[in-house]
């Protein structure tokens, strides 16, 4: 879990993004950014997601002849970075095949997710002590690198907008993306986002939409390997929807109910963001009479939130996708499953993330059978993002193309 202060320091001194803003400014940014996640904007992303996933799967095909387990998180993280650059910023990074393209930036963004050491180290709660520490030095260096990358992306887009002048001309060349909407967004007074706010929101989306989704995909693939009966059910469903196609279409996403349930069950057991923080704007009294005052920072562990089946711990640990069937979901409290938080401050990009996870799982299971590496079981590491201390290792077996169901 993490505090607002530490989370804010991810992007200090370049301002606050939607993740940590509050009050009227949060409301203004949320309203300006919401159109970026309309389904009309998300539709063309699905093909781009498919392209990025297939690049990763092609790499895996060259690795598996060694008959060694593949450490997934590294590959999946590069894939999600490639995806977000192509979808949200129309930027052809090629980072999956040439890591040197974003080498320093990738390292910096990864380092910025390891900030829980500041939360658990009491002296580091002091800005001065943290600033003078080796961790503080590395943090500032990583932050500078991340900001240089962000500033470069924004600068390049601004120049292209000046050249084409009209957004309509640009959209004849490519899809409308997140950065277009950020740069063109105006409030009721005709005011757009400042350069400081632009950088903060791009940083926020890069951070939230990159490693968080990589974590969700990696742990879902691990669950598929660990529970082969569910893996096979998903594969049969995916075959019926895709046939021999290696690209997922927008219309396919709603035709994979069992696959979707498996993704949700994986996130219940392995929440990509293991802790969520909120600051109370008013006092609250619970049903048992206990209360919390205004301005207190409330932290909760997402591992402890879920359908406990009458507090039966053994039931809680069972992988059961049918928890999320329509009939069972209707019986559950709306806040019993919170991988994207809830309420007005829920994750604005949750549909983007779910679409990407569906695409990644569908294309992976279409091409490979997954088996766990029993000698390298993942060791859960709950930081800002849920990781594994020793990686997520799986054996992959290429599926004979002749066994694929034809449309």
Automatic annotation (TrEMBL):
<keyword id="KW-0479">Metal-binding</keyword>
<dbReference type="InterPro" id="IPR050196">
    <property type="entry name" value="Cytochrome_P450_Monoox"/>
</dbReference>
<dbReference type="InterPro" id="IPR001128">
    <property type="entry name" value="Cyt_P450"/>
</dbReference>
<dbReference type="InterPro" id="IPR017972">
    <property type="entry name" value="Cyt_P450_CS"/>
</dbReference>
<keyword id="KW-0503">Monooxygenase</keyword>
<keyword id="KW-0560">Oxidoreductase</keyword>
<protein>
    <recommendedName>
        <fullName>Cytochrome P450, family 4, subfamily T, polypeptide 8</fullName>
    </recommendedName>
</protein>
<dbReference type="InterPro" id="IPR002401">
    <property type="entry name" value="Cyt_P450_E_grp-I"/>
</dbReference>
<comment type="similarity">
    <text>Belongs to the cytochrome P450 family.</text>
</comment>
<keyword id="KW-0408">Iron</keyword>
<dbReference type="InterPro" id="IPR036396">
    <property type="entry name" value="Cyt_P450_sf"/>
</dbReference>
<keyword id="KW-0349">Heme</keyword>
<dbReference type="Pfam" id="PF00067">
    <property type="entry name" value="p450"/>
</dbReference>
